[in-house]
Amino acid sequence: MNDNISGWNTWLTAFDxxxxxxxxxxxxxxxxxxxxxxxxxEPVWAKVFEELSFAPLPDEALTLLTEEAEDTVxxxxxxDDAYSYTPLVPDDEHDLYExxxxxxxxxxxxxxxxxxxxxxxxxxxxxxLSDLAKIGAIRLEDDEDFEGGEESYLYIxxxxxxxxxxxxxxxxxxxxxxxxxxxxxxxxxxxxxxxAEGKLPKPMPPxxxxxxQNNPS
Length: 217
Prior knowledge:
Blueprint: H1 3-6, H2 8-14, H3 23-34, H4 42-51, H5 59-77, H6 79-82, H7 96-115, H8 123-136, H9 149-167, H10 191-196
Helix pairs in contact: 3-5, 3-7, 7-8, 7-9, 8-9
């Protein structure tokens, strides 16, 4: 699948002026959230990104994210369509290093997105996330070859691709009901703003990724 068909170029264009994290990580975050939640509208997406202490998304990026989330939920809800899900990574015309790093970023984004859903894990799901965390912990220097080459990359890519397929069978809930933004009005102040005003005595990150504590990236 080339970059035009996969949507890679479309995402690059939409997120051109936003550089907090990579588009692969945003796509992973969106996917993780959409395995347990219904697709939210643009204001709720904006609130999620605010509470995660990201810079505001450009309008084009926010619209694309909202539309892609709707498509992802629709796809993952269908048992047959779900198997055609693909993480957002560059195509095989890009260097292997770039593709591995993009998959690493997607994996970390997925764990963050699913982590903020407050959902419990089955033993099988916990094992899958532990393995996904290993992908998120991959370290490579710019000039370093990925051990196992293309064959190993395809193996971990296929594993990562199947994680959202396996996670998407649970009953979904509204994003506005997750603890990250539960009870907050759309115009409510973010955690970061409250900390700056001294109304929260200790800085408390909105997400504690317990699944990746032993595998820091």
